[in-house]
Amino acid sequence: MLAYLVKRVFQAIAVMFAISLVSFAIQDNLGDPLRELVGQSVSEEVRQELRDELGLNDSFVVQYLRFAGNALQGDLGTSYFFKEPALDVILKKLPATLELVLGATVIIIGLSVPLGVYTAIKPNTILSRLIMGVSIVGISVPVFLTAILMIFLFSVELRMFPSYGRGDVVHLFGYWSTNFLTWDGWLHILLPSVALASIMLPLFVRLIRAEMMETLQSEYVKYARAKGIRPRRIYFVHALKNTLLPVITVGGVQIGTMVAYTILTETVFQWPGMGFMFLEAVNRVDTPLIVAYLIVVGFIFVVTNTIVDLIYGLVNPTVNLARMGA
Amino acid sequence: MKFFGHLTSVCAISLSLVAAAGAEPLRVAYDADPVSLDPHEQLSGGTLQLSHMVFDPLVRWTQDLQFEARLAESWEQIDPTTTRFHLRDGVKFHSGNVMTAKDVDWTFDRLKESPDFKGIFNLFTDVKVIDDTTFDLITSEPYPLVLHTATYIFPMDSAFYTGQTADGKDKAELVKHGDSFASRNVSGTGPFIVSEREQGVKMVFDRFADYWDTASPGNVDQIILTPIKEDPTRVAALLSGDVDFIAPVPPTDLQRIADDAGTELITMSGTRIITFQMNQDRVEAFKDARVRQAIDYAVNNAGIVDRIMRGFGTVGAQASPAGYLGHNADLTPRFDVEKAKALMAEAGYADGFSITMMAPNNRYVNDDKIAQAVASMLSKINITVDLQTMPKAQYWPKFDERAADMMMIGWHSDTEDSANFHQFLSHCPNADTGDGQYNSGNYCNPEADKLMAMANAETDVAKRTEMLQKIETILYDEAAFIPLHWQDLAWGARKGVHGERIVNALNFPYFGDLVVD
Fold it and tell me: Which of B229, B391, B438 lies closest to A270 in CB terms?
């Protein structure tokens, strides 16, 4: 277990190093940050002076070594736009994104398990067919379209939910303010969470259904039936547990992907999280912030995958973590 | 007597209504929030919009582009290079300090240090303080745009910005990137004080209790400014009543906001001209004025405004919009495909040629669609266009490289004066003076340049008007560039928010004067 974790830490460092190198290499193609910093009629001469001040005229190697040196001391650079250390900016935005992902995850777990199990047990009912049909639509409609449609239906036409932002948040500690302690906060987080969940939910319903149907055909389920165990117990205790193994694997990877999808959801809902911040940073060519974001997201991917592996071990005792990490 | 009794009771009622309305904060949504609280950090629309809320200029523009006295009560020219300004008495800064001519002097010196603003103040040499409320603004040579430039002088609280911060930095420091006292703290004379700011999320403004302009009809006590980047979300926020005032309104939603019972659409012709430039150094044919005219004749700008902009633009045939001195009403848009073909044939290019074209896709309203339309219009006169569109972040470096044969550029004159268009867009490129910095066409006409130099030293308005109009005529006759349209401005407001009285073609709504029923 310990050896496994140590291995993972080294993996994480290697991944983040690779990301920093790649993101540094592409930053020249993102555009000229000076254009976003100065007005239209500023002369080329003044721009060159500023470029020198920012160290943008140095060679790639010099710039990267300077960045890496600072990064080792925990300084990922200073955002041009926010004028604060890039890591601070991201950490301030992180709670909003994590709450959104949490909201979406709760919706996904809460709905995909019952829906998946139901469509597996009763595949031929009208309701099952309806669920499967709707899930196809859910997979194929892009998230920003779902989001805009929801805003126009629920905010503009029905006036049930607010159209943008986080609303009233309650400060917890540090940079963390939460939506979950006020009614207004709940109203604000609902639409974005549903929009974000809409991409993943159909996938999980289908995955659980397929796994469940396969498990229901297996010998031990037949045996349990023959033994006279109540169907409810067979479905939710014996079958579901074995169904969940692949679901957890896919889920771990998908949580990382979901962080990426927050970029679109947050942009449409003006959700002040780090996905929206990233898109803005790209538009403003705020390169230090872009590089820092990519590194942080890489870190999140590594962490979630590690946690998933640990959970995997708990659910299925036959999995040997020490060997898996190799 | 009875009449007066009625009058006072009516006044009392309306006053109580005003008070009731003022209690609700006004929620404003823009596409972006100001970059910094420092008014000298970046010369951009966002900075100036903020400056008009938190500071006051010496003079400002009215809706019909006239000058209105603000902190300067009056002014007179005392010799060709000196203008004397008289400041309003007893104007207070948010900090409680009283504004004097010394603050103007201090602000002027800081403007001369600002990389963004010093260009505008190039010809201004000094502010000479006469007494607390009088100062002279001195130029190196007779200059016709003294008042134009005075709209950029928003006196800052020199006492507030003097000294050192806790970590030993100069409070006056002007930093273009990175942290500074002035980018996070502000004390101006304006109608609103900044009481809360979370960059990119929201800003809260409270009305300044000691505001000097007691004659202002404005009755908004608090403004909450939220940036909403996405067009559909911003529109939805207005329609659903989550915000009271939005800008900009995307062309696709103009009708919707106009038709909705709860909202009102405010539009105005803007001053930003959208153009294409034809690079004569890259394409031999563009050196021939007939070819350039042919392109102008082939491009249907009225069609672009009608179809692509959905009427949300004013068709142009020159750079200067109506209301500017240089605007020549006789110049009309050219569109005649047959004539264009004839001109091409005359120039020896009946069979056409191939060119490359570049345009941004997130800088101007519908910029990429406009470029596509122009490319297909040019195919009718046998010019094959290889079009590339890209985000502005990537576009500007390409523009600096002059990377394509035809490039799109939109321009708003920082001085609100015609000469500025010519100086940056069509003046012979000169790396030393910076003239023609955005002239990717490399068009060069010494006669027009001479007229501009003369106009910039001519203080007689009639003579100056004639010179500036002459420049526009020359550029039109030679088809120096392809003018398309002036982008219109649009704001959306909840009914009862009288936004139409505070907006202007410069897109600096004067929120201090906003009346909400």
Answer: B229
Low-confidence ranges of chain B (pLDDT < 70): 1-23
Q: Which structural domain range is residue A265 located in?
A: 89-284
Instruction: Report yes or no on A41 lying in a domain.
Output: no
A124 CB near a chain B CB, below 8 Å? no
3-class DSSP state for residue A176?
A: strand
DSSP string covering B3-47, please? Answer: HHHHHHHHHHHHHHHHHHHHHSPEEEEESS--S-S-TTT--SHHH
By the CB < 8 Å criterion, does A32 face chain B? yes
**What pLDDT sits at residue A68?**
87
The answer to whether A164 contacts B237, with C-beta atoms less than 8 Å apart, is: yes
User: Mind listing the pLDDT tens digit for each residue in B16-51?
Assistant: 444 444 468 999 999 988 889 999 998 888 899 999
B178 at interface of A, judged by CB pairs closer than 8 A: yes
Domain count, chain A: 1
From residue B346, give the alpha-carbon distance in Å to each of A38, B115, B280, B339: 45, 48, 19, 10
Which pTM was predicted? 0.85
**What is the per-residue pLDDT across B179-201, written as a single tens digit (0 to 9) for each?**
899 999 999 999 999 999 988 88
DSSP letters, B349-416, are -TT-EEEEEEEESSSSTTHHHHHHHHHHHHHTTTEEEEEEEE-HHHHHHHHHHT-SSEEEEEE--TTS
Is B231 part of the contact surface with chain A (CB cutoff 8 Å)? no
Residue A179 lies inside a defined structural domain of this protein? yes
In chain A, residues with a C-beta closer than 8 Å to the C-beta of B176 are 37-38, 50
Asked, for residue A263, whether it belongs to a domain, the answer is yes
CB contact under 8 A, A30 and B394: yes
